[in-house]
């Protein structure tokens, strides 16, 4: 079992080292400004959560192409392997952090990703009125959802715990809802 994890950890490190880097502080401040503007425009944390998820989903639809082209990952055999690739390669490649895959259900269709750290939340402190309402990094859930949907996997992705909310760790729940099948029109 540890063999694939080591393999994916090494793939993630290699992919991260090949990626073009942007200034982390600039990225974090830009993301923070985006969330702040959404809060001003929408005035409702739930609406902001939904908008961040939608934006992330649209990013994920496109980001998967770069991931497949640059990561060196081959087709996954099952959802368990897919979750390991997301945790060890995808998050590492684009955010510079990995995650542990834990808490599988008995059907092996749902698990949690425990992030070692959340780079989007660096320098962030939620105001008291947004604690337990705003999922500041909800963009990540949308990105994961969009990437996996491009691979024909419809998933539900949501934050379960967040250090910004006062939890001891940051945890994302990932649940496979459906394996999509491409439909082809027969023109004959």
TrEMBL record:
Compartments where located: Endoplasmic reticulum; Golgi apparatus, cis-Golgi network
Keyword Transport among record annotations: yes
Biological processes, Gene Ontology terms: Golgi vesicle transport; macroautophagy
GO CC, one annotated term: TRAPP complex
Annotated coiled-coil segments of the chain: none
Keywords: Endoplasmic reticulum, ER-Golgi transport, Golgi apparatus, Transport
Matches recorded under CDD domains: TRAPPC3_bet3
Family assignment from sequence similarity: Belongs to the TRAPP small subunits family. BET3 subfamily.
Quaternary structure, from the entry: Homodimer.
Function as written in the Swiss-Prot or TrEMBL entry: May play a role in vesicular transport from endoplasmic reticulum to Golgi.
Full protein name: Trafficking protein particle complex subunit
Organism: Symbiodinium natans
Highest classification ranks of the organism: Eukaryota, Sar, Alveolata, Dinophyceae, Suessiales
Gene name tied to this protein: trappc3
